[in-house]
């Protein structure tokens, strides 16, 4: 793992991971209200050693990891059953919140739907890749059938 524009790129799918939780390491009077950084940023690309010219969200998929556990004495960030994961295509995030810098948990839940556990995370990411590619391929077929070239819609096929 190295520093790059995205956190992970398995089989070429760019994935950004954002984390939040209710309990912090410092003394708290009350539980934190989870939120996630989704601001567009200039990205540094390891392969070229160049920053992007404009701020973007360079990943194809965002994985929002919520440490949902709320009992400090039994908190263990290594226990994957204490985590929930929300998976969102960047195109959906860009369409719904193009300039938003932080997403509150309730907003994320409305956008992403129900969370999954760690055991279902890889399948949810694969499902999102498949549905995005299917949508893109349908658009491409309609465009070719009409005999015209056009810019692709905001729904782009995720590369594998």
Descriptive overview:
The chain is an alpha+beta fold. 27% of the residues lie in helices and 19% in strands. Strand 3 and strand 4 (50-51) form a beta hairpin. The relative contact order is 0.17.
Number of strand elements = 7
Spatial strand sequence of the major β-sheet: 1-5-6
Class based on secondary structure composition and strand pairing: alpha+beta
Question: What is the molecular shape?
Answer: globular
Whole-angstrom Rg: 18 Å
Average pLDDT reading:
85
In what range is the share of β-strand residues? Answer: 15-25%
| Element-by-element helix/strand order | EEEEEEHEHH
Helix content: 25-40%
Structural features:
3-stranded mixed sheet, globular, alpha+beta, two-stranded antiparallel ribbon, 160 residues
Entry summary:
This protein has 160 residues and is of the alpha+beta class. Helices cover 27% and strands 19% of the residues.
Write the layout of secondary structure elements.
Layout lengths: L14 E7 L13 E3 L6 E2 L4 E2 L9 E7 L15 E7 H7 L5 E3 H8 L5 H28 L15
Parallel strand pairs: 1-5
Antiparallel strand pairs: 2-7, 3-4, 5-6
């Amino acid at each position: 793992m190295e520093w790059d524009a995205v956190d992970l790129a398995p089989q070429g799918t760019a994935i950004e991971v954002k984390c939040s939780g209710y309990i912090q390491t410092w003394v708290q009077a009350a539980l934190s209200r989870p939120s996630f950084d989704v601001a567009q940023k200039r990205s540094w690309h390891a392969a070229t050693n160049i920053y992007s010219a404009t701020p973007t969200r360079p990943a194809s998929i965002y994985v929002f990891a919520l440490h949902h556990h709320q009992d400090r004495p039994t908190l263990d960030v290594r226990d994957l059953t204490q985590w929930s994961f929300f998976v969102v295509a960047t195109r959906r995030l860009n369409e719904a919140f193009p300039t938003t810098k932080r997403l509150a948990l309730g907003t994320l839940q409305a956008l992403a739907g129900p969370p999954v556990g760690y055991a279902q995370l890889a399948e949810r990411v694969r499902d999102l890749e498949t549905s995005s590619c299917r949508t893109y391929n349908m658009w491409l077929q309609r465009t070719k059938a009409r005999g015209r070239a056009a810019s692709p819609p905001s729904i782009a096929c995720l590369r594998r």
